[in-house]
């Protein structure tokens, strides 16, 4: 093992050891800033300001391309400011909170579409920067938690993240149901949550050695790291596919409009409940073996979706629970495996997690570019009466394609010697 790796994993004073509650809280805040952007923001600007969905979709697509392209640059920036991580995170947190307030709580002072684009850019950039620096810090923090440190840290972090997603998805609806100004209040609560997470993590950013960032070369040269990135793409792509098509599937294939929200919340709560359980199992049996078992469960669940049709809401709810449980392992164990590899080949990890973020986000671009035009060519029309052939195409894309992708991810992971780490 290199001297740099020794520094990355050398014990820190007890006062500098990672606070797992802080990592969970910070992950929850980042997750709260993710899903609402895609679920809530377009509807808010369409309903309140009359911006067309086509224009909003175009802006989101352009911003997603920008977001993917800028991740390697943000990784370099995170490496450059490693000696001032606390200040950098505070600035990033302020940008994230300001963007959310501008997006949801401020009446646009300029054309709403331009305001939407500007505030979303601020949120996207802050979110990406904070995610990279947070996960990179986790590589060195996990070294202070013993032999299973990467899994233990991931268990706390990803459970917090999943709870944050569920909160972000449900809170505006709950606030609106209580007769309150949902989105302005959501933005205020998000600012408070951000301040709380920054406070809980205030002692953790200075921890660990300030290792130089070696860039992408040692990561791309490493065969195991390359294979893990391929597995990450193939394993995240099914979630991108189902996220893109979920509303269409529930509304048209299940003929169950109005059930989208409860089913989505059921999925995320199941993932959040399962994540710590998978983590504990992985600490005893190993992360690779545990993750492969979860992937088999996910594969079987996706296959079962192919048999569903109109009215099968109860059966689909069970599948949402099972796929949520499997996703809890995906989101906890695969980042932990990759983080353990980064501790070996690129201990600063900023470029490594910039590349990881790039791979994860590219799955959403893949889903949007490949699926929606294909679904349209198959004759599917949202909200309309669709022919059986169009509904069959929707089912095959929603569940059949994820089966193939999950099989590919399972094959890559099975042949990757991660136990060496």
UniProtKB/TrEMBL annotation:
Keywords: Membrane, Transmembrane, Transmembrane helix. GO terms for molecular function: transmembrane transporter activity. It comes from the Bacteria. The chain crosses the membrane at residues 20-39, 45-66, 87-107, 113-135, 156-176, 182-201, 228-250, 262-279, 291-310, 316-340, 352-375, 395-415. InterPro entries: MFS_dom, MFS_trans_sf. Pfam families: MFS_2 (PF13347). Residues 224-421 form the Major facilitator superfamily (MFS) profile domain. This is Major facilitator superfamily (MFS) profile domain-containing protein.
